[in-house]
Amino acid sequence: MWEVNLLVTPTEHTLLAEDTPLSISLSVSAEDSILSSHRPSSLFSRFKKVVNQCSTPIPASFNMGISFSPFKKLSLQRKRSSQSQCVVRASAVSMSQEAKTQNDSGSQQTTDGASTRKKVMVIGGDGYCGWATALHLSKKGYEVAIVDNLIRRLFDDQLGLESLTPISSIHNRIRRWKSLTGKDIQLFVGDICEFDFLAEAFKSFEPDAVVHFGEQRSAPYSMIDRSRAVFTQHNNVIGTLNVLFAIKEFREECHLVKLGTMGEYGTPNIDIEEGYITITHNGRTDTLPYPKQASSFYHLSKVHDSHNIAFTCKAWGIRATDLNQGVVYGVRTDETAMHEELVNRLDYDGVFGTALNRFCVQAAVGHPLTVYGKGGQTRGYLDIRDTVQCVEIAIANPAQPGEFRVFNQFTEQFSVNELAALVTKAGGKLGLEVKTTLVPNPRVEAEEHYYNAKHTKLYELGLQPHLLSDSLLDSLLNFSVQFKDRVDTKQIMPSVSWKKIGAKPKTVAA
């Protein structure tokens, strides 16, 4: 069961006193929520029942600003007087707005010289990169709010998957962070594809920067079937467009830090520059966006995002940084290691698991490392500790109004074969017998190719990387061994084929 805590926040023309918020709790199971997104009437009736039992006067009409579905907005109207209105907002922690003076990286100077905390909204803050980033920024002194519809947890339920690590609910995570650090993280539960919800979150929190992780981030997931391909593009492109419009309408000075992907570039037979390339053609020279060669419906959604952001920077003067991130590995950051309820998720399956994480889990349970095709596929990689560091650097050094910056966010390049060799060597030191098996490549990609991507801009701004070392591999392997009893070996082999994607929805057999 999920417990949804709702806070009725009065606006003007309300029957509630401004200092008397109304708290409502409603227990909702996964089946009641997104799994029943096409049958929301049961949720409405249950919510009405709870509202009708409240002793506190309810405004004449209100909108339920929490969405459990990526496709439908859950709204509820209660007619009593056309002059009364308030918004229902999901709340998990104290919504205190007390001003605090801190001498840390999260502070900024106001016009009168006072020091205030910089507000950062982390969209997708319940996910793998988002959760680690939210905690890191909070510890650094930023005032943080998480916006998330919690759909990543639903994907596991849909596909029969589970994180290697047991992960607490977002509400328990935030409560634990508060108890350990005394720092509040605000929570807005809803779908950014619903602009009314996003607008209310923006107006309530008033972010100085938005870190946008709130996208379906798996290439294999986007290639399962037509419905998931459509969902990926709709969720990612429309969600990002809504964020851009929210910045334009409500926080025009807000800096957008958007997580892109190195996969936008593909594997060209020339060096990959950071976002732009200078070309001389027929005697004329210009600097143009680097050509895109996306390799899945997911990567294509990221390309569309980049084009939309670049256009709005030019047309509306939005300031934006596009972080074209490589493949992330690892699970621990200083913050997530503070308590078991703060532990991050670690995916090892063939849909959401990234290469190095998957290999370490496979080695821990004695499964041969699954190298796709010839194994010459080369990509940029980085430690999750560097993900949060890069985001912090981008926030602390914002783009100028109208500027669309592109940073290639990775620290090292490896081929799949090189990763397999590193894991085999590290596993041997721990007494693990690690073998490798070549698996038919489910993807459509070059398996042997030139790859040299530039990545200097974040270093110039102060990035201190955590390079892949024997000690880090030992740590990740030991972590995998610790939780190996949670591994479902049926989820290890790839099950999604780029060529066999079909129009009919695929389900998981019981």
TrEMBL record:
Annotated TM spans: none
A UniProt-annotated Pfam family: Epimerase
Start and end residues of each NAD-dependent epimerase/dehydratase domain: 120-408
Protein family membership: Belongs to the NAD(P)-dependent epimerase/dehydratase family.
Listed name of the protein: NAD-dependent epimerase/dehydratase domain-containing protein
Provenance organism: Anisodus acutangulus
